[in-house]
Amino acid sequence: MASGTDAGTALGYEEARDELIEVVRRLEAGGTTLEESLALWERGEELAKVCRHWLEGARARLDASLATGREGEDGAE
Fold first, then answer.
1. What SS3 class is residue 12?
2. Of 11, 26, 36, 40, which residue is the least packed, with the fewest Cβ within 10 Å?
3. Residue 76: is it exposed, middle or buried by C-beta count within 10 angstroms (0-12/13-18/19+)?
4. How high is the pLDDT of residue 72?
5. Within 1-77, where are the H helices?
6. For 11, which DSSP code?
7. Burial class (CB in 10 A: 0-12, 13-18, 19+), 5
8. pTM for this entry
9. In this structure, what is the dihedral angle of CA atoms 16, 17, 23, 29, given to the nearest 10 degrees?
10. Nearest by Cα to 54 from 14, 7, 19
11. Are 42 and 20 in contact (CB under 8 A)?
């Protein structure tokens, strides 16, 4: 598993999401030491931030596109 902010931001949304799913699966399965669980939790937090970053960026692009579309409609009247 990669760690650190630079490695996290280099991940695409799908990669981060898939790794986050695996982290959650491992945490839910149990059988890890406290130290391993904490490391998994921290990695999960990093991955969630990466996913959130991508989703916020997608939301901003959608909002900008919708705003541009509305401006075009207003000018067409």
1. coil
2. 36
3. exposed
4. 73
5. 5-10, 13-29, 34-76
6. S
7. exposed
8. 0.74
9. -170
10. 14
11. no
Q: CA nearest 5: which of 25, 38, 16, 17?
A: 16
Two structure tokens written together for 16: 């981060």
The label of the residue with tokens 């009247």 reads 77
Q: What is the pLDDT of residues 16-57, one digit of tens each?
A: 999 999 999 999 999 999 999 999 999 999 999 999 999 999
pLDDT of residue 75: 62
User: How is residue 32 written in tokens?
Assistant: 């890890």
Asked if 22 and 32 count as a contact pair (C-beta separation under 8 A), the reply is: no
Contact status, residue 26 vs residue 32, Cβ threshold 8 Å: yes
Question: How many whole angstroms separate alpha carbon 16 and alpha carbon 39?
Answer: 16
For residue 73, the number of C-alpha atoms closer than 13 Å in the C-beta half-sphere is 6
